[in-house]
Structure formats: structure tokens, C-alpha cells
Amino acid sequence: MLSLRDIRKRIRAVESTKQITKTMEMVAAARLRKAQQQIESFRPYARKMQEMLAHLSEASGAVEHPYFEQREGNKVALVVISSDRGLCGSYNSNIFRRTNLWVADHPDLDVGLILIGKKAINFYKRRDYKILGSYRDFDGKFDIGKVRQITNDLSEMFISGDVDRIVFIYTAFLSMASFRITETQFLPIRAEFEEAVEKEEYAAAKEYIFEPDPETIFKQLLPSYALVLVQMAVADAIASEHGTRMLAMGSATKNAGEMIEQLTLQRNKARQASITSELLEIVSGAEALNK
Amino acid sequence: MFKLSIVSPERVLYEDDVESLVAPGIDGYLGILSNHAPLITSLVTGRIEIRDAHKIEKIAAISQGFLEVSGNTATILADAVEFVEEIDLSRAESALKRAEERVNMDSGDIDLPRARNALIRARNRIKLVKQFKQMKK
Lengths: 291, 137
Prior knowledge:
Chain A is of the alpha/beta class.
């Protein structure tokens, strides 16, 4: 059993830890709000762009672009989005587990990893995986310059033929308390917007005027679309990071509170015991004198 | 009257019914009225003029983008767009200075097309702010 002094010391220690986790929870909540705003302000743009691409490809027929090129090769780049900082529950370990699974599930593919975030870099540094590139220091903040850099590097990698396919693994942000690890193919761009058109039964009779011509517009629009895709993945991952951190820190704060309660109980018991034994000593001492 | 929405990656700048729209198409400025024929075009850096349902004119600066008109709806996707009133002149001027320096250095390792673009954008913003101020007088 711990002595009274030790218990007091532990209560103080747990209390200061609780304060730290509480602060981290609040910081994460603030950053999450910001990240959410980022996602929400960005969604209309992404949606409209998809619509425009849909109409464009519908009206102009098959357009050839390097981004659409389906290749037979087996070289795949897997883009793993993790965080720079820890203390966010199982956010990173879930991503790594999924990544390892993905690689194990595709033994026929020549997979190379592209790592985003310090945690992924440190994790895969010492393991036996091929690493094609790494980016760090997003630090939970959305940085359009870095996103652009990543997009440019990835498309160059794809167009030059270094890889035949690029897949993202990241944590999609569904709501404040629900996140899902998602894999999506980035390049070649899946012509998903064409399917959307068929569902909508878009009036095919429409004769669009193109200025200059559809191919040129496509060529200008697709790099922006690629950027949009990367942007969405990164923005989701950042929001999820803050979300998981908020939850993790919330439960840490709660646990610390419970621990303090238990320790306080123990402290009171110990104090009572010491008082009782002191009293006993005095009483028995006094009785001995009376004899 | 037709529906116009102007969106950029940062935000939705405008979403409402308008009477007319003028936008900087790749081959010159385009005027759009209601029931315009379906159209998709790329836009260059320049000025957007809107005349809204109450016949109030609004002017915005756009830095490249795309315009689609179909079924009495017009959509502008812009890399960056803001109303003239929102432009921070001193910021635009310092951006212009930076871009000029970068273009003039021409040291090879900088991204020249991007620097040129920045230059065009900064000039566009400054020009529009000045025009806007004169208009008000």
C-alpha cells in the first residue's frame, strides 16, 4: 500500500496530466473546426468541377489525355497520408495497418510508398518497403502550396511512366466522431463523372459551344481537377487527425478524472488509518500511565 | 434573368439570379444574357461584371478559370476570385513587386510561367481597384 505522501504526489501528477490533455483536446477541437470549414468551403468547387467535366466529356465524346491512360504495368505508387504529431489515438496505426494489408494483398504488384507526415516516414524508415518519396511538416494545417507540389510530383511520376497507377490511402472525414480509412485511385483518373452523367440523363441533344475547343479545355481543366482530388484527400485527412486527437484527448481527460477520484478515496482512507492508529497509540499510552 | 454561381477553391463568392454577366473569355470578353446557348469556355485573368436582379452592378477580379452556361444557369470556376471592394491594394502592390523581381531575375531555377501568372494577376487586381475608384467619383 502506498504511503499518504506517495498518494498525494500521484494525485498532483495526474492532475497536471489532466490539465495538459484537456488543453490538447480544446486545441484539437479548434483546429478541427478550421479544418471542417476548409472542407466545406471547398466542396462546392469540387462538385461544380465534376459537373463541368461531366458535361464536357459528354458533349465532346472521348477525349484523350495522359491522365486517363490505363496501363498494363504493375508499378503502383501508394500515397499514405499520416500526421506529423502523435497523441491522436489509433489514427496513424490504423493507416499503417491498412497500408501493410494492401501491400500484402497485392503480391503481384510492384508497390512503392509515398509518405506524407513524419509518423509514416518514421514508421516505414526501418521496414522493408520501397519508398518513392516523402513529405513532412504539414503539421495539421492545410497548405495549398504543399498540396500543389505533391500534385505536380505525382502527375510527373505518372506521366513519365515511373508508375502506372497512383492510389491514396487516407482517413476520410465523415463526421465529428466517425472516420473511415479510404483507398481511392488518383491516377489514371477514373472517368467517374461520365457515369454521373448517364444517371442524370443529361440532355445529350445540347449543342455546346466550346471556346477554344474541347481538347484544350480538357487539358486546362484536368490539372485543376487533379489538384482538387489531392486537396480533398489531404483536407479530409487533416480534419480526421484533429478529430481523432480530440476524441483521444477527451477520453484521456476522462480517465485522468476517474483516476484522481480513486486516488482521493485511497488518500482519505490512508489518512483515516493514520489518525486512528495515532489515537490508539495515545489512548493506550495514557492507559499504561494510569496503571 | 438566369442563375449564376461563382466558386473558387476557397469559397462560394456569388450564388444568385442575375440579369447579365460579362466574363473574360479566352478570345475576348463575353456577354451572357438569359437563355444563352450552351457554352463551355476557359477564362483568363480579368474582370467579371455582374448586373444583379436589382440592376446593381458588381465587379470582381478573376484569376483564370472556366465558365459553363447551360439551361439558363451559368457557373464560373475560378482559381481565385474576389469582388473589387475586397481587394487589398497594398497587398496586391507588394505582390506585383515580388512578381516583377522574380520575372526579371530570370535565374532559370524559378518557375517562370507561375511568376508571369502572378504578375498578370497582381496587375489585374490593381487595375480593377483603380478603375473602381474612378467610377465611384
